[in-house]
Amino acid sequence: MSYMHTPGPWELYGRSIGNLGGVDIRACGSKLYLATALTSAEYRTHAETVANARLIAAAPDMLDALTAALALLRNPDAEAADADAMDARISSLLERIGGDV
Hints:
alpha+beta, 2 domains, about 45% helix, elongated
């Protein structure tokens, strides 16, 4: 399968927009923004905004991990070590996003 998206990795880049705080997401090494998560006292805290931005920035790695996990699940000859490696990969990704593992 091929997917049409800006290749990862993506990174967070903080900035302020008017009276709003924001976190931009961009491809590493690029100055072009892919998305912006905005903070507004009325709608969400800055901590929630950063968490949202981390989740968005992890999208390419999540896609890669899901593709690899599906291939592993479909492989009748997969070894326990393969499953352990996938567990470690997904756990690491979840830790980077900020989730409980």
